[in-house]
Amino acid sequence: MSKLNIIIISGLSGSGKSYAIKSLEDMGYFCVDNLPTALVPKFVELCAQSDKGINRAALGIDIRERDFFGNFQKLHEDMKAAGYDLEVLFLEASDEVLSRRFSESRRPHPLAKDKPLPEAIRLERELMDEIRKKADRIIDTSNLSVHQLRDELSKHYRPTGGKGLTVSIMSFGFKYGVPYDADLVFDVRFLPNPHFVPELKPLTGMDAPVREFVLAKEDTVRFVEKINGLLDFLLPLYEKEGKNYLTIAFGCTGGRHRSVAVSGMLAEGMKARDIDVIVRHRDVEK
Prior knowledge:
There is one protein chain. By secondary structure, this protein is an alpha/beta fold. Helices cover 42% and strands 19% of the residues. The chain has two domains: 5-157, 3-Layer(aba) Sandwich (Rossmann fold); 166-281, no CATH class. It is built from ten helices and nine strands. Helix 1 packs across helix 7 (146-157) and helix 8 packs across helix 10. It is globular and about 65 Å long.
């Protein structure tokens, strides 16, 4: 039984497959996009026999490969029978979102050579239905930014081990909505707002004057101490239960000042304690 873990990434054109492959590559997967299905068995064999320690590989295969549909069924069965740890990841999005993405990028849809874009999207969806049915995981990217797609992939495919649980700390503005993927949400709108200080208003929580204004407040210091105490209690329990990715969101009104400063301070403290942290300020540019 091979220990090689293989992810076949497929799905609808414009749904984010190329970015997904890049994200998996950043996580340590050996990635190849648009490899002809006839070459996949040889590629997998070379990975399995490699003396470079390749134990994770991701293959992007989609409608651009002409023999994809005819060969996929046998390819899938053969790789399962060979004992590989195989997973099929299928990405999709709504017709409206796919149309907008192609219009914005000005790239042609692979099936739109002799038909309108909406018809090409519908045809591809029909052709890909059998592949979708065999998928182990389906991700709808309609409402995901590239950063959110990366975070979603990290939850499922980031290698375990090493530092263990990965914490994603996000700042956001309540006026733009609460993050749908947050595990823990904290409201910091009780803190004094730099928005009403003329010299601080155009700055963000990443700028030193705003950080000093927010973080020097006694209420902020006490809040951060209590949050650290709570997380010191929770993180080992989450990790014990097998969770390897946790998203913690801090929100203020607009997501530019208080939440950004507090998120940055907490992230710095976690990194100092050797906790693997990803920081994202969702609304800081809005």
